Amino acid sequence: MIRYALKCDQTQGFEAWFGSSADYDDQAARGLVECPFCGSNRVEKAVMAPAVGGARRADPASDMAVRMQTVMMAAAREVRAHVEANFDYVGDAFAREARDIHEGRSEKREIYGEATPAEVKKLKEDGVPVSALPDAPPDPSKVN
Questions:
Q1: Closest Cα partner for 110 from 85, 135, 134?
Q2: Over the stretch 40-56, which tens digit does the pLDDT of each residue have?
Q3: Interatomic CA distance for residues 82 and 24, integer angstroms
Q4: Does the pLDDT of residue 121 top 80, yes or no?
Q5: Which CA distances in Å does 80 have to 68, 110, 117, 136?
Q6: By the 8 A CB rule, do 92 and 112 touch?
Q7: In a 10 Å sphere around its CB, with 0-12 CB exposed, 13-18 middle and 19+ buried, how is residue 46 labelled?
Q8: How far apart (Å, rounded) are the C-alpha atoms in residues 74 and 138?
Q9: Half-sphere exposure (CA, 13 Å, Cβ side) for 52?
Q10: Mean pLDDT, the chain, whole residue set
Q11: Which of 7, 33, 34, 105 is the most exposed place for a label (fewest CB within 10 A)?
């Protein structure tokens, strides 16, 4: 696994883990790496200090980061569970259905589904309110 410091075209910084540098390159080239804050898929590597081994000392900032990550992952799980329980899944018809609802051609209801980055960009440009649903984080009891 490799951790990258990344930033989007809106200058928001975040970190992400990849199986290898080739995995990052492949996913970034296909527009699959998105900013978790704004959804932009125009992402690039940011300057990052290398991890240097040595004596382990308790790092309060690191402890806080772990606690924050735990809270954020739990929140992402809750959001996803709420959407899956209360919204209609429309599969790969999401872009068309979202546009139809927005323009009054379909009944107003909450939906979720699949869309390409290009479809999402076009929906946003046209004023259709869309947001990325967070991926389901791994179950903490199943992570090593």
A1: 85
A2: 889 999 887 766 666 66
A3: 30
A4: yes
A5: 18, 13, 19, 7
A6: no
A7: middle
A8: 10
A9: 4
A10: 86
A11: 105
